[in-house]
Write a structure and sequence with these properties.
This protein has 285 residues and is an alpha+beta fold. The protein contains 8 helices and 12 strands. α3 packs across α4.
């Protein structure tokens, strides 16, 4: 196939018009483009950073077969591609003379694109992280739950949310272009962060959720400060938001887990989550 089979969209609206049906056709595998484009649509194109996002798709015979997006400064995000499609996109992007810090996609796609990018540009790819996408089956709360209760974070929790936002970003070693205050305000306004708190009212863990898109909600982030781990707080918080997502009518509840963390992967499986597929993130030199 040819690099010019890939097309950059003029804007978010035209991208969703062309690729929306395709993205909804496999909602679990396309959870990131679905939730990111919904956030851009509802909160503005600068929500992830000052530089304009980019969108595009692969079309054959008038049918969208694949799509990508990038919200600088973050990596390029891809839907599943064949090695030939990945090579054509790498050649296309290299011809645009745009910087590219890395790629994120299902494992096979990300690896194929990273190898193609090295061929076309000479940049050396480095595996940053492998993740597993999980989908909830039958929710199985941990027994016993730790003492305390779940509570949706409110205005009084803004400082706590800002602190944990920054701590979480450091813990996962990821880029964050979102101001902690804006992040906290958006989630307080939508009720999308739940604390697990001890009987005296002290928050000890948090779990968040994405807005419902295409009948699914994704759990993220899940964070417990290091000195409070190993006490069941993350499992309790995740149970609370998973139960709330089901009650809100989500047909599917998803989450990502770092494959380098056997504790979190084991926890989510005990709660009733089963693997969908693996993802990988590469950084480019």
């Amino acid at each position: 196939m040819r690099p010019d089979d890939w097309h950059l969209a003029e804007d978010l609206e035209s991208f969703l018009t062309r690729a929306g049906e395709f993205l909804h056709s496999r909602p679990a595998l396309h959870t990131l483009p679905l939730t990111v484009t919904e956030t851009l649509r509802t909160r503005g194109l600068d929500v992830y950073g000052a530089e304009a996002p980019a969108f595009g798709c692969l079309e054959r015979a008038g049918e969208v077969r694949a799509a990508f997006f990038r919200t600088p400064p973050h990596r390029l995000n891809l839907t599943p591609l064949t090695p030939e499609e990945a090579d054509a996109l790498a050649a296309h992007w290299a011809g645009l003379d745009r910087p590219l810090p890395g790629v994120s996609a299902d494992h096979d796609t990300a690896t194929a694109f990273a190898e193609a990018w090295q061929r076309h540009t000479g940049a050396t790819p480095t595996l940053h992280e492998r993740q597993r996408l999980y989908r909830l089956g039958t929710l199985t709360p941990p027994q016993p739950l730790p003492e305390g209760r779940g509570r949706v974070a409110g205005e009084q929790d803004r400082e706590q949310l800002m602190l944990w936002h920054d701590e979480f970003a450091v813990a996962i070693g990821g880029l964050t272009s979102t101001d902690a205050g804006s992040w906290a305000d958006a989630r307080i306004a939508s009720g999308r962060i739940t604390f697990w708190e001890t009987p005296d009212g002290t928050p000890v863990s948090m779990a968040g959720v994405s807005p419902m898109v295409a009948g699914q909600i994704r759990v993220a982030p899940v964070y417990t400060p290091a000195h409070l781990r190993g006490r069941g707080y993350a499992g309790a918080a995740t149970t609370e938001v998973s139960r709330a997502a089901l009650a809100a009518g989500a047909a599917h509840v998803l989450l990502f887990a770092d494959l380098a963390n056997p504790t979190s992967n084991g926890l989510y499986q005990r709660l009733g989550y089963s693997a969908v597929t693996d993802f990988a993130m590469y950084d480019f030199e």
